[in-house]
Specification:
Blueprint: E1 9-13, H1 34-50, E2 54-58, E3 74-77, E4 80-83, H2 92-105, E5 110-113, E6 126-128, E7 133-137, H3 143-152, E8 158-162, E9 173-177, E10 180-184, H4 187-199, E11 205-209, E12 218-220, E13 223-227, H5 231-240, E14 245-249, E15 266-268
Parallel strand pairs: 1-2, 4-5, 7-8, 10-11, 13-14
Antiparallel strand pairs: 1-15, 3-4, 6-7, 9-10, 12-13
């Protein structure tokens, strides 16, 4: 089983009011309440701090309505930060903010940029299990983006995985504990999982969750952060992960515009690099 990946820092960004004017991936779920969204976001940040994470909180940028979804702007593993090239061109200015923040706040990180102008890469498509990396080939991340990940994090095996459906890889599959994957009980997720298992270098226990909205979780320093308000999923987590510390969080509002727990956090895995044997 993979060891626990510990995060020293995390970047988050406050929610701009301009997000209310956008239409996200989960439309028709009601009008977004900016006050409630900010309250839910503040609760997430507070939990991260309680778990020993040094949170770097950015002020909201009204010119960048999706800037609170910082996960998509970089991938940070083992002391190396790869700045992404989001699939939506209008989001690429967000990467500039992440670049300047990393240089200012975490100057000892090695920062790498994607040189291939044809590459697209969203951080929400990169799943790091602690032992290997999977890169979802989705509508927002292409094969050149996956190559950039593989060429950056040479110490970890990296596998491209075609994602069935229109979302990110981590909207269908996420890490809930070392060696354990949460998977949505849907046709799209099962097809994607099958491809992952064919490529994987490690064996994983699979935990099927009945509610698609709950699959995206955050496993932070030994604690699982997951969405509250879904009793069927809560029952599965209690039965299968009873020994694991869990924190349920309300996250209704940003879900209306395609957000998820992990999308709001750019975790920094900052340790000495080691060579793959």
């Amino acid at each position: 089983m993979a060891s626990i990946v510990r995060f020293s820092h995390a970047i988050v960004s406050r929610i701009p009011e301009s997000i209310c004017k956008t239409v996200g991936g989960n439309a028709n779920k009601g009008e977004l309440s900016i006050s409630k969204a900010r309250e839910e976001h503040e609760q997430l940040v507070a939990v991260l701090r309680k778990l020993g994470v040094d949170v770097i909180e950015l002020v909201q940028d009204e010119t960048l309505p999706y800037s609170c979804f910082v996960e998509d702007t970089a991938v940070v593993i083992n002391g190396i930060a790869l700045l992404t090239r989001p699939g939506k061109k209008e989001r690429r200015k967000e990467v500039e903010t992440t670049r300047s923040t990393l240089k200012r706040e975490l100057p000892d990180l090695q920062i790498t940029e994607i040189q291939d102008e044809k590459a697209t890469l969203d951080g929400g498509d990169v799943l790091f299990t602690g032992s290997e990396i999977f890169v979802g080939q989705s509508k927002l991340t292409n094969s050149q983006g996956a190559v950039a990940v593989a060429n950056t994090f040479l110490e970890f095996p990296t596998s491209p995985v075609k994602v069935t459906g229109g979302g990110h890889l981590k909207s269908l599959i996420s890490l809930v504990a070392p060696g354990i994957l949460a998977v949505a009980n849907t046709k799209e997720a099962k097809e994607t999982l099958h491809r992952m298992e064919q490529m994987a270098e490690c064996k994983y226990q699979v935990l099927m969750l009945p509610d698609l909205e709950t699959v995206n979780c955050l496993f932070v320093n030994g604690t699982l952060l997951h969405r509250a308000g879904f009793p069927d999923t809560s029952k599965v987590l209690e039965e299968k992960l009873s020994v694991l510390q869990r924190v349920p969080l309300s996250f209704c509002e940003l879900g209306k515009v395609g957000g998820s727990l992990s999308s709001c956090v750019l975790p920094v895995h900052k340790v000495k690099r080691h060579k793959r044997s």
